[in-house]
Write a structure and sequence with these properties.
The termini are close together. This protein has 7 helices and 5 strands; from the N terminus they run βαβααβαβααβα. By secondary structure, the protein is an alpha/beta fold. The chain has a 5-stranded parallel beta sheet with strand order 2-3-1-4-5, with helices on both faces. 54% of the residues lie in helices and 12% in strands. Helix 2 crosses helix 3 and helix 5 (104-113) packs across helix 6. The structure holds shikimate-3-phosphate.
């Protein structure tokens, strides 16, 4: 099976849903941010601080090319991964891409619940965060929209909701046998 790759904005639920999807499909799960942190022994905010966003995007692209070559895996990308270089075309050529699509309100609710430190949104007030999400979705959605499959995500409160999304993604990508 070629990789199932989850894309979408920060806070869409890529890691939460991806981990459960991999468990259900009995395959390995790779979160691209964690893979980068493991390989470079540094947290994402530290990489941003030392190399800037441009340096981070170079590393991210290189690491994407490693995980997308694995077989029988579920991968969750970073929110920006599909929007740089030819990453989205590269992914579509070899993987089953799934966009976890959510409104700015859903994304903001999830980001408020999460514990991850995200350099691009650190220190923003709720109003600033809302405007930032709306603005960046405008430039990012055309990239996300190239995904082969789309799932609409609501605010996740329960395990049942996660299981439902997992089931939907599994059936959307079920013919993925190459
Ligand atoms: C980013 C999203 C983050 C991480 C980095 C940049 C982005 O991943 O890759 O902070 O540009 O949207 P998550 O979407 O997993 O938070």
């Amino acid at each position: 099976m070629s990789p199932v790759v989850l894309i979408g904005y920060m806070g869409a639920g890529k890691t939460t849903i991806g981990r459960q999807l991999a468990l259900n499909m009995k395959v390995d799960f790779y979160d691209l941010d964690w893979y980068i942190e493991d390989r470079f022994r540094k947290k994402i905010p530290q990489i941003f601080a030392e190399k800037g966003e441009e340096g981070f995007r170079d590393l991210e692209r290189r690491m994407l090319h490693e995980v997308a070559e694995f077989e029988d895996v579920v991968v969750s990308c970073g929110g920006g991964t599909p929007c740089f270089f030819d990453n989205m075309d590269y992914l579509n050529a070899r993987t089953e891409t799934v966009w976890l699509r959510a409104t700015p309100e859903v994304l903001q609710a999830h980001l408020g619940m999460g514990k991850s430190v995200r350099p691009l949104i650190q220190g923003k007030t709720p109003e600033e965060l809302h405007d930032f999400i709306v603005e960046s979705l405008r430039t990012r959605e055309p990239f996300y929209a190239k995904a082969k499959h789309i799932i609409d995500i609501e605010v996740i409160h329960t395990k049942e909701q996660i299981d439902k999304y997992v089931k939907d993604i599994a059936s959307l990508t079920a013919n993925n046998t190459h």
